[in-house]
Design a protein that fits this description.
The protein has helices at about 5-35, 50-55, 55-85, 95-100, 110-120, 130-140, 290-315, 320-325, 330-345, 345-360, 365-370, 380-390, 395-425, and strands at about 155-160, 165, 175-180, 205-210, 235-240, 245-250, 255-260, 265-270. It is an alpha+beta fold.
Length: about 425
Amino acid sequence: MTGTRKTVAALFLLPALVLLGALVVYPIGYSVVRSFYDQSGDGFAGVDNYKALFTDDGIRTALKNNVIWVVFAPTVATALGLIFAVLTERIRWGTAFKLVVFMPMAISMLAAGIIFRLVYDQDPDKGVANAVWVGVHDTFAQSSAFPKAHPGRESPLKPDRGGFITKATVSMGDSIALPLVGVAPDRMPDDAERAVQARPELGKVTGTTWQDFTRGKGVGRLGQVDPSELGYAGMRIEAVKDGKVVASTKAADDGTFTLPEAADGAQLRLPASNFKEPYNGLDWLGPSLVTPAIIGSYIWMWAGFAMVLIAAGLASVPRELMEAARVDGANEWQVFRRVTVPLLAPVLAVVVVTLMINVLKVFDLVFIIAPGSSQDDANVLALELYRKGFSEDQPGIASAIAVFLLLLVIPVMWFNVRRLRREVRR
């Protein structure tokens, strides 16, 4: 068409063809051949390496996780991208919002993995995810301030159902001492005050529960309230008769408490709720949540990519069609569902297909974020390929996994190429 001779065209294409052959065609061909040989590379193994893809537990877990990735990651990322693209058209600072959402694309997978390894840290003081989760949880269900408290020597208390109960019953007019130890001074509640020995009252049962510990050898008196000791503010006390709670109260800031006449002849119990371990959040990187957690980090990175492509497609959508739908009485949800989404279908298909190809090859995030204890549960085919080829020295099986991945990607690529050709013809 241009009048250029075929030999000249071939000379110009030759460098690209050489690079393509050396970097793509040859590795693919060598992987296919190598997948039919055993571990040493000398013996022909036939299809044994391919049988291992469906019998090896590690590969089967990886295949299952890849299915989860392909189903959820592209779908959620595309849906978020669509929502962001549509909503940012209606706000003045939409460009700034798009910039912020797209910014994670500038971060490498390695850096994103390190970031989210910290985000998902189990310790709420380090991990942002658990810091937020614990904060929300503690707003509705306050954790105990005394998880380590327990009776000391010569204590009137004994263990009972995770809590502690008095060995003897109490009587009206008694002042009961309930000393505990085991809480570090810097862990005591902020509202705790110096403990006070409760005074006996007629017709009532009184007492004090406090931290029976004074710094300095030989300073404190065991079982008695000393001037520097703090009361267990908010400690719950129950009066129990025949296994039933007949009265209950909470200790004041100085540890003192008062129970009504119903407590006469009962045992005093400090229930297990007083000693419940503080809520420490979710084990984001544990076996059950590690895959959804890593998918979340992937969506954080790629939702911006989906948003930018969809926003570009949205800019070319005829506004007259939307206005006509509104004039005909359609609400915004109907305009979005019946007009915007169908017109954006080609763009949405490009985004979904691109992300599907991308997640089939995901490796970096899983390798970095998943700790060794749960990496088997988060395993994917690309990671299993690396492990078989390098950690376990099984290049034959690793090559079979590589070929299998190629076979999984080809239908998606073929669909994308056909769709692009149809678009060109239009």
